[in-house]
Each structure stands twice: as C-alpha cells, then as structure tokens.
Specification:
Shape of chain A: globular
Number of strands of chain A: 2
Structural class of chain A: mainly alpha
Distance between the termini of chain A: 41 Å
Structural class of chain B: mainly alpha
Strand content of chain A: under 5%
Distance between the termini of chain B: 23 Å
Order of helices and strands of chain A: HHHHEEHHHHHHH
Number of strands of chain B: 4
Oligomer: heterodimer
Order of helices and strands of chain B: HHHHHHHEEEHHHHEHHHHHH
C-alpha cells in the first residue's frame, strides 16, 4: 500500500513538469491551430537560460523562472510576428514543417553555443526531501509542481480577466469575426505564441533542475506535450493540468511494471494517446467543439 | 504568371530532355566502375563512393514517392511513415539473420508485413482528421521503434535489442551496383504505382477524399477502404525500401531503421517537388538528398563553408537545412516542379503572391 501511495505521489509530482510543458503547447494549438513542433526546443532554451544564470551568477533556479518567461515571450513574439504569421492561411502540413524547421534551427544554434555536454542545475537543496509515514517527497519536485500549478493559474487568469486574454478567446472562436471587431490579429497571434513560449521557458527552467539537459533533450517533450494536451482535452488550461497530472501517473505506473523499466514510457504514453484519440477524441476533460 | 501555351510546351520539352539525360547518366554511370569498363577507359567514371550516395538518394525517391500516395494524393498528413521503413528493414533482417532465409526470398515479405501493419493501425488512425491523424501517426512511428528495440523474451532481446541486428553479407558480385539497381527497381515500382493510381478509379476516389471527404462518401466512395488501401500501399513501398536497406547496410538498429528525421525529410521532399504529381516527389528527393549530403560534406565535390570549423560543419548544415525548410514552406508552397514543368516562372511576383496567399 505504501508503495502504491508512493507511486501516486511521485507520479503527480512528475506530472508538474508535464503540466508546465503542456499548457503553452495547448494554448498555441487551441488558439492558433498550430501544432508547434518547436515547443521542445523553446523548452530547452529556457533550461539553458536557467543554467547560465545559475552557474554564472549563482541565482537560485526558481528565481530565474521569470527571466525565462520574459526572454521566451520576446523570442516567441518575434518568431510568430516575423515567420509563422506568414503561413497561417496555408494547409496544416505547412505549419508542421515550418515549426519543425524552426526546431532544427534553434536546436542546432544551441549546439553551436553550448555544445552537446550534459548540463545540470544543482542548488544545495536538490536531492533532498522530507518523509511522512514512509512516503518520500523530494523538495525540487514538490516546488516544481507548485510552480507549474501557479503558472497555469496565472495563464488562466490572464486569458479570462484581461483585454488581450479576451482577444485571444475571440480569435480561438472565430478569427475573421475577431478581426471584424477590431482585434489586431498579427499582434494578438504573436502575443498568444509568445505566451506559449513563455510557458515553455518556465517548463525548461523546471526541467533543468530535474534532469541534465542537452540541446536535443527537448524533442521528447514536444511529443509528451502532444499526449498531455490530447489526454486532457484541447481548449482549456484546467484540462491540460488534468492531462499533465494523468500523464505523470501513467508514466510512473508504466515504469513500475516489472521488467519494463523506463524504456516503454513513450510506447505506453503513445498507446494511451491513440486510445484516447480513437475512443474519446475530446479528451478526458474536453468538450466537443 | 501563367505562361503561354507555346512557351509552356517548349519548357516542358526542355525539362523532359534534361531530366532524361540526367536520369540516364545516373543510371548508367555506375556501370563504368566495372573492371571491363575501367580497363577500356570509358569516360564518366563513377567510384564506389558514388554508389552509397546514389543508393541513399534513390532510397529517398522511394520513400517520398510512397508518402505522396497517402500524404499528397489522399491528403492525410502521415508523420510516422518511418515505422514502415523500420518494419520492412526488421522483417528482412530477422528472416535473414535468425531464420537464415535467402535475401531474395525474405525481401518480398517486407512490403507485405509493412502493409498488413499499416492496414491494422490504419483502421483506427484513419478515422482521425487533420492534426489528430498527424500526431497519432507520429506516435505510432516513435512507439514501434521503441518496441522493436526493447521487446525481450526470457531476458533475451527478440529483435537484437540496443546492440542492433547484424546480417550476413549478401554474396553477389559488384555488391554496390547490385543494391543500387535493386533500389532503382523499387523506385521504378513506386513511380509506376503512383502513375497507375493517378489514372485509376482508386486514385480518383483518393483525390475526392482529399478535396472533400463527406462529398466523396456521399458519391459512393468507400472512404475507409480507400484510405486504408492508400495507407497500406504507401507502407508497402516504404517497407520495400527498408527491406533492401537492411541487407545493403548489413547492420540495423533503432537509430538507422527508425530515424525520426526521415519522417520530415520525405514530406519535405514531396513538398519541394510537388505533391500529388508522379515525378515531383522523386525530383524533390534527388534535390534535397543531394543538398543534405553536400552540406554534410560527404559528396566528392564539396566546398568549405566560410567561418565554419570542420567539427561544427554538420551542425551548421542542419541550421541551413532548417532555414531552407522555413524558406520553402513560406515561398514555394506548391513545389519547384511548377518551374520545371513550365507552368509558372520563378519571379519576384510569384514569391510575393505565395507569401500573400498564406499570410495573416
């Protein structure tokens, strides 16, 4: 029983990272109708910013998260405004290819700058945790989950309570009607993508504390963000939170199956995703649109 | 800009003549590497190195042409076709290495198994549309590679595991030549199949599905059967390429039988050449694969990139490839075959129009 509870706790804690990775991806997909294959690359950019600030200035990694968010927002805004906006009216295959091209460029520029060495962020409290009744809770994971929930809440607040958030909702509902009521589409699209990138940056900062990163470490996260968003359901931040936590649980239990180790994690995740897509395409929490 | 009928015909003739000459040279030059030709001093020599590059190029011709059937003609953005390549490679590989079958007997099973697998996963997957199909097929591509590497039975990896699978070398004179022409045969089959599809009732049904699936269904096209058929056909051709690859390369593992980047490369090739056409994907495959090899510095003719050290070269090549991808998608979304076919001419106004058509 204790082992089961431990597994649930670890799964939920690991889900924090997936929530952070998923919310930005889901926002861009749900509003702009872009499956952003560069998401993982943006995540890793955030990771490197955190690593750089931590090693060069000794900043606490959690304090670097706002820097990640701001830097990635600017990068994302520029990418959408300058490049991705050019193909918004093209078939979906083109957005796939374009974002894959951006992914290739970003990952390889990171390789040129940082090389392919593993980098990790290890504050003094990493690896420590507390214990309640035989259940171990690592500090970094717990704080990451908290940060991810905070990020999602902030995003949900922004989307529902601010002017630009309402504009983003309007775009998601009907792009042309949104333009008719005076929303500057180019700007609003760029802000949406920037917000998605900012979430990716924060997720990258969290990931850098949990695992060693390389420029190519982001690719699995793009795929996992897919699964998280599909699991939860497209279109709402809260659904992505549920999807992320569910994904963490599935991964934890998948890895605990005797003899499977961590190698089947992706296969299990994708099997689950295909199952959800075929049987309940609106996701666990989603509404049919 | 629509060219006049006359200049269109002239361009098209020129394109066909130049294309035929290039294809004839590419097909015949390898023969000059035979001993007899060497001693007779036949010009246009090709060395051993050429076969590897040329065979790779032709392999991508097969894959891009196969992708075109599901992605270009049917309009379903399959992102996991590399799974079929890997299944073909491992089918042939296992039959040769473990069951000791002769290569030419094992090879036909590669496309059959790949097609069966495609039909099996296609039935649920092809019910999905748009992004969902693309994502789910990508998931299948990744998951199959992972399963093949990690399935154990009694503690023994079934498919060679992480250390891969070694095949005995196929005993045939002029191995390089043999596999080059075998791959060319596969490419010829792929192109012939595409040609047939575009002129058949089956192909019209697929195009109807691409243009409007509901309307096609109303008109009596059995959309499920047609889509699964197109998917299985694409899988069979891709699996054939994989089967040839495994015996040619003698060693297969997850990295070379299920490379994720092939998924995008074959799509980009089809797109660069022109989707939905017979020769477009092949032309795109030749252009792009030669460019990739050139940038990677593995062609006999090569230039030094300025300010780039030898170690950084492959990385810079990837950056250039990514930028190229971005530029192609933004500026020539209909593929370059239009320029060669004489339908349009490359001009500033063409680029500006492409940009305006898709911009926000």
């Amino acid at each position: 029983m204790a082992a089961f509870v431990q597994l649930v706790i670890l799964g939920l804690l690991a889900g924090g990272v997936y929530v952070a990775v998923g919310v930005g991806f889901g926002l861009v997909w749900g509003v702009l109708n872009i499956v952003n294959l560069a998401h993982g690359a943006l995540v890793i950019v955030g990771g490197y910013i955190t690593w750089q600030l931590f090693t060069a200035f000794g900043l606490d990694p959690f304090l670097t998260l706002p820097v990640d968010a701001v830097a990635l927002f600017v990068l994302g805004y520029a990418l959408q405004r300058g490049v991705i906006n050019r193909i918004i009216r093209a078939p979906l295959l083109f957005t796939f290819l374009l974002t894959f091209g951006l992914n290739l460029v970003i990952v390889n520029i990171l390789l040129l700058i940082f090389g392919s060495d593993f980098r990790s962020v290890t504050p003094t409290y990493s690896g420590q945790g507390f214990e309640i009744g035989g259940i171990v809770v690592p500090y970094v994971r717990l704080t990451s989950l908290g940060a991810a929930i905070l990020l999602s809440a902030g995003l949900a607040f922004l989307l529902s309570r601010t002017r630009i958030g309402l504009a983003i909702h309007a775009i998601a509902a009907d792009r042309d009607a949104a333009q008719l009521v005076g929303i500057d589409l180019r700007h609003a699209y760029a802000v949406t993508y920037g917000l998605g990138a900012a979430c990716a940056g924060v997720a990258g900062g969290l990931i850098a504390m949990i695992q060693a990163i390389t420029p190519t470490a982001g690719e699995p996260y793009t795929l996992q963000a897919f699964v998280v968003v599909i699991l939860g359901g497209l279109g709402r931040v809260s659904a992505t939170v549920v999807g992320g936590l569910a994904f963490g649980l599935v991964e934890a239990f998948g890895q605990s199956i005797p003899g499977s180790g961590s190698v089947f994690a992706n296969a299990i995740a994708f099997g689950l995703m295909v199952l959800v897509l075929v049987t309940r395409p609106q996701g666990l929490m989603g509404r049919l649109r | 800009m629509i060219a006049t009928a006359d200049s269109q015909r002239r361009w098209r003739r020129l394109f066909l003549i130049v294309g035929a000459i290039v294809a004839a040279y590419a097909l015949l030059a390898p023969l000059t590497s035979l001993d007899a030709a060497q001693s007779a001093n036949v010009p246009l020599l090709a060395d051993k190195f050429w076969f590897r590059i040329a065979t790779y190029v032709v392999m991508f011709v097969v894959m891009a042409t196969a992708w075109n059937i599901i992605g270009g003609i049917t309009g379903y953005a399959a992102f996991g076709n590399v799974a079929f390549f890997g299944i073909g490679a491992y089918t042939t590989g296992m039959l040769i290495a473990k069951a000791k079958w002769p290569f030419l007997v094992a090879l036909p099973l590669a496309p059959i198994l790949a097609a069966l697998f495609a039909a099996l996963v296609g039935l649920p997957l092809l019910r999905l549309r748009g992004h969902y199909f693309a994502v789910a097929s990508l998931g299948v591509g990744v998951a199959v590679g992972e399963l093949v590497q990690n399935i154990d039975y009694n503690g023994q990896p079934v498919f060679g595991g992480a250390s891969g699978l070694f095949l005995p070398i196929y005993a045939v004179g002029h191995r390089g030549l043999f596999f080059f022409y075998l791959m060319c045969g596969a490419a010829a089959i792929a192109i012939a199949v595409t040609w047939w599809v575009l002129r058949s009732r089956f192909g019209y049904g697929l195009i109807a599905i691409r243009e409007n699936e509901e309307a096609a269904a109303v008109l009596g096209v059995n959309t499920t059967a047609y889509k699964v058929g197109a998917f299985a056909l694409a899988a069979a051709l891709t699996g054939l390429a994989g089967g040839i690859f495994s015996q040619w390369n003698v060693f297969i593992n997850q990295d070379n039988a299920f490379p994720i980047e092939y998924n995008v490369q074959m799509i980009l090739m089809a797109l660069l050449g022109g989707t939905g056409t017979v020769f477009g994907p092949a032309a795109g495959a030749v252009l792009l694969q030669l460019l990739i090899q050139f940038l990677g510095g593995s062609l006999p003719i090569s230039i030094d990139l300025p300010f780039v050290s030898t170690e950084a070269r492959p990385i810079v090549a990837q950056v250039i490839l990514g930028l190229l991808l971005v530029v192609v998608v933004i500026f020539v979304p209909r593929g370059v075959i239009d320029f060669f076919g004489g339908r349009t001419r490359l001009s500033l106004s063409y680029l500006r129009r492409s940009l305006r058509d898709t911009s926000l």
